[in-house]
Structures are given as C-alpha cells and as structure tokens.
C-alpha cells in the first residue's frame, strides 16, 4: 500500500477510490478539525462509510466540535449525530456511543432528569433542567 499520499494529511476521506484500509488510515491520521469540516461539507447522511471507521476518540472530538457551544451542550445537534449513528451496525454504534465522555452525558441527561446532589449529609439539593448548571471542562 502506498502511504505517501497520507503524509500531508490533506486526503479526501470521501474519495470513493480509497480502500477500507486506506480510509481507516486516513481517518486515523487526519486532524480532527479537518475530518469535521469534511463531514460537515458532505453531510452526516453521506458520511456513514467514514463514521463507521472513526475511533471513539475521534468521535468524541467531532461531538466536541459540533455539539458544544462554550460550556453548553446543544441537544438538538447531539440528536442529529445520534440519528445518523443509528444507521451504523449496532456494535459500531455502541462502541462510539458508550465512550462519549462524562461531561457530555451529564449535560445531555440534565435536560431530561432531575439530579440529586447530596452536598451535606441529610441535605438534598435538586437541580432541575431549568437551572442549567454550568459544567467546567
């Protein structure tokens, strides 16, 4: 396999002539911001072949780039990604889904759950989605 074309990291991961192994190598080597821009330019629905080969770490970076606005998670953006990732075979979907970081899950579920934070013994403090607590990253 000729790897010289991956040296400058400007490979088009949507090049249909790339074999699966070449595509996996390109995805591994391409900077996250470049991968993100290519996916956004082609659209999530047309990115299934690429998303299938992305590592959980790269997926986290894509979520961070697209779904976070400073310290606020945009739930609607996260749902768009989830809807697209559902098109992957289940094991590939779950590998990426389960490894998203704790800050993501806290911010995501705070919109749907009431969180009980026992700050002192016997004293409960309840955060509701309307209070939207800030998560320091």
What can you see in these coordinates?
With 137 residues, the chain is mostly helical. 48% of the residues lie in helices and 11% in strands. The chain has 7 helices and 4 strands. It has a two-stranded antiparallel sheet with strand order 1-2. Strands 3-4 form a two-stranded antiparallel sheet. Helix 2 (32-42) crosses helix 4. The chain is elongated, with a radius of gyration of 18 Å. It starts with 19 loop residues before the first helix and ends in a 10-residue tail after the last strand. Residues 133-137 have low confidence and may be disordered.
Structural class by helix and strand composition: mainly alpha
Q: List segments where confidence is low: pLDDT < 50 over at least 5 consecutive residues.
A: 133-137
In total, how many beta strands? 4
**Looking across the biggest beta sheet, what order are the strands in?**
1-2
Strand-residue fraction?
Answer: 5-15%
Distance between the termini: 40 Å
Helix content range of the residues, please? 40-55%
Main sheet summary: 2 strands, antiparallel
Number of helices: 7
Q: What are the secondary-structure elements, in order, as H or E?
A: HHHHEEHHHEE
Estimated radius of gyration: 18 Å
Shape: elongated
């Amino acid at each position: 396999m000729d790897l010289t074309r991956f040296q400058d990291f400007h490979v088009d991961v949507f090049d249909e002539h790339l074999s699966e192994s070449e595509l996996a190598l390109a995805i591994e080597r391409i900077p996250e911001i470049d991968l993100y821009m290519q996916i956004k330019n082609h659209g999530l629905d047309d990115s299934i072949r690429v998303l299938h080969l992305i590592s959980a770490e790269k997926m986290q970076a894509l979520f961070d780039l697209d779904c976070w606005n400073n310290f606020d998670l945009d739930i609607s953006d996260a749902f768009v990604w989830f809807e697209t990732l559902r098109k992957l075979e289940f094991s590939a979907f779950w590998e990426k889904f389960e490894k998203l970081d704790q800050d993501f899950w806290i911010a995501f579920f705070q919109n749907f759950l009431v969180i009980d934070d026992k700050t002192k013994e016997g004293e409960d403090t309840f955060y509701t989605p309307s209070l939207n607590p800030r998560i320091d990253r």
